[in-house]
């Protein structure tokens, strides 16, 4: 398997585990010191540190009832990015955003995740 194949497989596995709520599967893809950073000023913004914190963060985000539609898996020489269209409704709040979740890999596992959003104000309004 090439590094591109490995990165692609990790990206697909991460998305599949997130949509299925397979938290232990996500945990198995992470380095113990993994981080996840999201923009904005809301309940899911900022950086969490450690594999357990990343899993708790994924659970928290998924707990808002998001539909994580995978548009593309993008690979570089050593890393992977997921192009997603996330949507959800909660009371009068509507989430409809395009994003890229960039996963930096180390030794075949996710070391850092950074999410880039199309609508930070919309994210702030939804994740209160």
What does this structure look like?
By secondary structure, the protein is α+β, with helices and mostly antiparallel strands. The chain has one domain (3-126): Nuclear Transport Factor 2, Chain: A (Roll). Helix content is 34%, strand content 44%. The protein contains four helices and six strands. It has helices at 3-20, 23-29, 51-62, 120-126, and strands at residues 30-38, 46-49, 67-75, 80-90, 93-106, 109-117. Strands 2-1-6-5-4-3 form a six-stranded mixed beta sheet. α1 (3-20) runs antiparallel to α2. The longest helix is centred in the N-terminal third of the chain and has 18 residues, at 3-20. The mean pLDDT is 96. InterPro entries: NTF2-like_dom_sf, SnoaL-like. This is SnoaL-like domain-containing protein. Residues 13-112 form the SnoaL-like domain.
Main traits of this protein?
alpha+beta, 128 residues, Nuclear Transport Factor 2, Chain: A, single chain, 34% helix, NTF2-like_dom_sf, SnoaL-like, SnoaL-like domain-containing protein, 4 helices, six-stranded mixed beta sheet
Number of domains: 1
Residues in helix, %:
25-40%
| CATH-assigned fold name | Nuclear Transport Factor 2, Chain: A
Measured between the Cα atoms of the first and last residue, the distance is 43 Å
Strand-residue proportion? 35-45%
User: What's the β-strand tally?
Assistant: 6
State the major sheet. 6 strands, mixed
Would you tell me the overall average pLDDT? 96
